[in-house]
Amino acid sequence: FPAAPPPGLECLRPCPQCLSPLFVEAWRECLVSLDPRAGRGYTAVISPQDPTLLIGSSLLATCSVHGDPPGATAEGLYWTLNGRRLPPELSRVLNASTLALALANLNGSRQQSGDNLVCHARDGSILAGSCLYVGLPPEKPVNISCWSKNMKDLTCRWTPGAHGETFLHTNYSLKYKLRWYGQDNTCEEYHTVGPHSCHIPKDLALFTPYEIWVEATNRLGSARSDVLTLDILDVVTTDPPPDVHVSRVGGLEDQLSVRWVSPPALKDFLFQAKYQIRYRVEDSVDWKVVDDVSNQTSCRLAGLKPGTVYFVQVRCNPFGIYGSKKAGIWSEWSHPTAASTPRSAGCGGRQENSMNLGGRACSEPRSRLYTPTWSTERDSVSKKKEG
Questions:
Q1: Is residue 181 part of a domain?
Q2: Where along the sequence do coiled-coil regions lie (predicted)?
Q3: Helix/strand/coil (H, E, C) string of 281-315?
Q4: How many domains does the chain have?
Q5: In a shared domain, residues 225 and 255
Q6: Whole domain around residue 212: which residue ranges?
Q7: What is the pTM of this model?
Q8: 135, 161, 192: which is the final residue of a domain?
Q9: Could you tell me where the beta strands, DSSP code E, fall in 163-304?
């Protein structure tokens, strides 16, 4: 088994029972790519070592052996890239101990940790290795958006740029500071809601705007986003409304009653809330959204199909918190709740006027008081049986 690399160049050592000849060879390539001296005692050097190049660039590399083992010459050497032997026409012997390699119009690295360029002896043993980094400098991050869950934290996400992929490991740091005073701070909890996001869990100030930006850095350069200025009170969101209940409205075959509870986390703060309801039939992925629920915590859906199972969700938008003039951010939708309308009683059935049953109607039968918004989102649904 290959010797361990020098301090500071450690690889993750595999478990002995997981070893196979192919794995051992890959492990040895890993070692020599970190330190040429790791290859079986042979003395060889690849130059340049661990180069970083732009996509489309050319590379001229050399592998030079220095008489160990005796008789080692450039005539027997060959190259591999990521374990695949390169065509001999890409190489040429410069002198008795040096083999050159010419690569043109390089593509982006297949792995962000770099491609493995390895020089081999005639018998296939590894003489030296180098990591080849080919990619692009980062672009300016864009589309920064942030929200505060119940005014206790701040989560932000962004887009890495127009092209996004750099083919190199690119580090993104979200920075923030109070607008008029204070020092720069760095967010530490990344990937909370996706690959380009960060979460600030505590120690946030209210009534004072923040400046927020993202810095991107890799081997080929750095870029900085525009600064986003925001007040925590203007980007508040909350939990979905709990305890959503959907039930029939007496014997009315085209209506359902929806009731819910305001999110408890904001009950102690001075704020208002508005709600949206969306619903769909059981065998459909298309949702209809009711926009005119206002700040009520109950309403009736009308104009529904008789004898049909509906799935219903509710979400909340807090606004006017401590006098903020901006609308908040919509919460996630509540867990879907299922209920069915009564089956049709036929032509002789008696149908009451929904407006005489108490409570606020979300939409009247066959009216267009709602604004339908179509979605193809699928949800996991737990049906609630009606008693």
A1: yes
A2: none
A3: ECCCCCCEEECCCCCCCEEEECCCCCCCEEEEEEE
A4: 3
A5: no
A6: 142-235
A7: 0.70
A8: 135
A9: 171-178, 185-186, 189-190, 197-200, 210-218, 221-224, 228-230, 236-237, 245-248, 256-259, 272-281, 288-290, 298-301
